[in-house]
Specification:
This protein is mainly alpha-helical. Helices cover about 65% and strands about 0% of the residues. The radius of gyration is 13 Å and the shape is globular.
């Protein structure tokens, strides 16, 4: 089963793109995707959504690779969330 942290990913409906898709997509692990999605849930804003849409265009045109800085940021956030539970 999923942990409480992993279930948090269900707090928003899936969309066409997302934080995990523009920060590594298929080149990152399932765990990394969950951490990035939960980070997004806790930091979502219209500006972040606009950034995701804009960056999605560049990913489609030029591809993407895992963003190590954002993966570390999401992992740190996940650790804080899980220890707070």
């Amino acid at each position: 089963g999923f942990s409480r942290f992993e279930w948090r990913r269900q707090e928003i409906a899936p969309g066409l793109t997302g934080w995990a898709q523009i920060n590594g997509g298929i080149d990152i692990t399932w765990t990394d995707r969950i951490m990035l999605d939960v980070w997004y849930i806790d930091h979502r804003s219209i500006w972040l959504d606009m950034y995701i849409l804009w960056h999605t265009i560049s990913v489609v045109l030029w591809g993407d690779r895992p963003n190590q800085k954002r993966l570390v940021q999401a992992a740190t956030h996940a650790l804080r969330q899980q220890t707070a539970d």
